[in-house]
Amino acid sequence: MLRHFYDWLLLQAGKKNATWVMAGISFAESSFFPLPPDLLMIPMCLANRRRAFWYATVATGSSVLGAYLGYAIGYYLFASVGEQILRFYGAMDTFAALKDKFLQYGVEIIVLKGMTPIPFKLVTIASGLAQFNLGLFTIACLVSRSIRFFLVAAILYFVGEPARAFIEKRLMLVTTVSAALLVGGVFLVKFVHFGS
Description:
Blueprint: H1 2-12, H2 18-29, H3 38-47, H4 52-76, H5 78-88, H6 92-114, H7 120-129, H8 134-159, H9 162-195
Helix pairs in contact: 2-3, 2-4, 3-4, 3-8, 4-5, 4-7, 4-8, 6-7, 6-8, 6-9, 8-9
């Protein structure tokens, strides 16, 4: 069934409503859906490179809105809905470890995990369950998802079709390195601030 949906998604890339479909996928992927919006965004950007940054903006905005749904699932519906989502992905152990680290490294975790292809829904649900500050949650989601989607858009805009294989094979590496640099900067700021 997932394979059929994947094939259907790829067919949507060339249609008029593709931006709306990508927005819906981006929204749902932040809280419960298994497929990332990149599946639509990459072919859409390649078909119309001038709109690559608009597609990144739509993906970012809808992903952050979807993150609120994930947060609400963790905050209000963890026992009835959140656990089922995590069990579906086989992620209960990962989730337990993630939840315990939120009190100390919440912003860093959201930024780091939100930039990688690791299911973002784990982070959003854990944030809600941990009752993480909603303002900081919003900022961290905006930063991480912007970097994730605008990085893809920039590579596709400047490189074009040859970038597709690079992104599909090395997206995890590129976003992880970017996230590590960003989180390292946050730690440095904290260290300098508290050390003075």
